[in-house]
Design a protein that fits this description.
mainly alpha
């Protein structure tokens, strides 16, 4: 029971991270027009590595559970969500 509620909480965190990424992407795209330059990039430096590490740890945990067998679909869903989020945050810095 408790583990199921914890897994559902992660989906809320994933949604918050998507909103954060979208807002940050929009803000960064307009930063030069606002005259702020690289300030959004500098502000994000403390947050994004922490987010990437947390996503990596969660991916490893859920991938291990996918290989073990119970609730494969749920853990695979987590892996897909985490992979997409990881890709979005890496894309933000590469692009």
């Amino acid at each position: 029971m408790f583990s199921r509620s914890t897994n559902k909480q992660h989906f809320v965190i994933y949604a918050i991270l998507v909103v954060f990424w979208a807002a940050f992407q929009q803000f960064s795209a307009n930063a030069f027009e606002l005259g702020w330059g690289f300030i959004p990039f500098v502000i994000s430096l403390p947050f994004v590595p922490f987010i990437l590490v947390w996503l990596g740890v969660q991916f490893a945990r859920h991938y291990r559970y996918v290989k073990l067998g119970p609730d494969v679909a749920g853990h695979f869903t987590h892996c897909v969500c985490i992979g997409v989020l990881f890709g979005l945050f890496v894309y933000h810095f590469v692009y």
